[in-house]
Amino acid sequence: MPSVLAPSAPLLLPAQPHRILHVFRAPVGGLFRHVVDLTRLQAASGHQVGIVCDATTGGARAEAALADLAPCLALGVTRVPMRRNPHLSDAAALLAVARRARAVGADVLHGHGAKGGAYARLCPIPGQAPVIRAYTPHGGSYNYRPGTPMHRLYMAAEGVLARRTDVFLFESEYVAQRHRAYVGTAAGLTRIVHNGIAASEFAPVEPASDPFDLLYVGELRDAKGLPVLLQALARLRAEGRPVRLLMVGSGPDAESLAGQVRTLGLADAVAFEPAQPIRPVLARGRIMVVPSFAESLPYVVLEAAAAAQPLVATNVGGIPEIFGTAADDLVPPRDASALTAAIARVLDEAPETRRSRFAALSASVRLRFSMERMGADVLSGYAAAFRARRLDEAASRAGATPGTVRVRSGL
């Protein structure tokens, strides 16, 4: 029976520094922020870190972020073409990951997201010291609707890949539950490592002059619930509320969303802007709206909650884990009426009541989502996987079934 590790307290650093290679596809969004934060924390702890990611996404913003991160990347950055969906070119990308891992002598391959997780766990590294393979899903393949062909395909793939996973570092209890329900009990060690944010992100945001009433920050995809948000906006305006919405981000459905804005007669009420740092954007909206149909543990919710930004969000994925005791305030997904009512409630709330409510959420997030704890839990997850590997090797030499000693020892 595999073990489940409880979240750690203070980190016990390994005797030897690790050579860690983070593997993921797109250098954008919350997944990229997670890797960037981990890289800084791991480098500061004395480990050598490198990145392998897609060469075709992220644009100038990703280039600038990677250049800024360069002093922390002792093992450098390798960028190769990676497709979002399964493709014949995956074979070449897989070999590129394996070559890079051998070249830098990586002893930890940490895959992020479905594509990065597949590369990190499948790539062959013959003739090298034991390599620990860690996996953080970030939602991804687990967010497909259960029972659909794509969901069955990806869960079957996750079942195969689980056999090559030393430690699962699930970013939310929600994704861990999905894994147990649709893949099965993890064969490797598992722990929940919530995304964490820095103390500086709890500083108050000074509101801009003439802010928008509503703010959306994220990928422009229908799956983010944006058609429902536009319906809610139209309903609010039909009620006589002259509310305006700022949508910040980019994505494959940008043009169709712009068309929906025109169809609903909202051209004067909605502004689109490209992706940009979130804190200056938070100052330009009174209420952040997160209408997603599926999420894991979104940074945008953590960042807004930390800044005590008034929030309306759907009850999906790991968002209830962020809201904690305030999770009853969350809205059912795909329900324009419920979203409209929730936004109207915050708009009509007495300012002092609203400030108090979201200050309490900020204080709760500060206690539960520390960046330092995130970094410590990831490193101690690696350490536990190395201990388990040594125990399995000892058990094998003694003629016992690998994993027996590990389970009895509580790892």
TrEMBL record:
It holds the Pfam family Glyco_trans_1_4. InterPro entries: Glyco_trans_4-like_N. Residues 28-198 form the Glycosyltransferase subfamily 4-like N-terminal domain. Keywords: Transferase. CDD domains: GT4_PimA-like. It comes from the Bacteria. One of its GO terms (molecular function) is glycosyltransferase activity. This is Glycosyltransferase family 1 protein. It comes from Methylobacterium durans.
